[in-house]
Write a structure and sequence with these properties.
By secondary structure, the chain is α+β, with helices and mostly antiparallel strands. It is built from three helices and four strands. It has a four-stranded antiparallel β-sheet. Strand 2 and strand 3 form a beta hairpin. Helix 1 runs antiparallel to helix 3.
Length: about 110
């Protein structure tokens, strides 16, 4: 369910979107992009959820690896199709993860 990431720091690419009506090949392309991303050097994992707003966070070893993914030819095709057909609006935010913790490592206990 959650991406298995290393100790920080690493990069998170946060893609937030509003979908247009209809699938029009979206599901197949999303599956293909998820599989392709996993093959890229520096890819650490992905987490995604969709209700009214879709949020996909992909994790990368560093900014160089994240930038390289953005320029993969098949991903460029998907980006263009997303902009032209699948999304009524979207944002991409790139962030550096500085800390990570969960229930067993919560900062509340220290």
């Amino acid at each position: 369910m959650f991406a298995s990431t290393p100790e920080p720091p690493y990069v998170a690419m946060i893609f937030t979107s509003l979908r247009s009506d209809g699938d029009r090949g979206y599901s197949a392309m999303a599956d293909a992009m998820a599989a392709l991303a996993q093959q890229q050097p520096g890819h650490l994992g992905v987490e995604s959820a969709r209700e009214d707003v879709g949020i996909t966070v992909s994790y990368w070893r560093d900014e160089l690896a994240a930038r390289a993914w953005k320029s993969v030819a098949a991903h460029l095709v998907a980006q263009r199709r997303g902009r032209d057909v699948w999304y009524s609006d979207y944002r991409v935010r790139v962030a550096q993860v500085l800390r990570e913790y969960g229930p067993s490592t919560s900062e509340l206990d220290g």
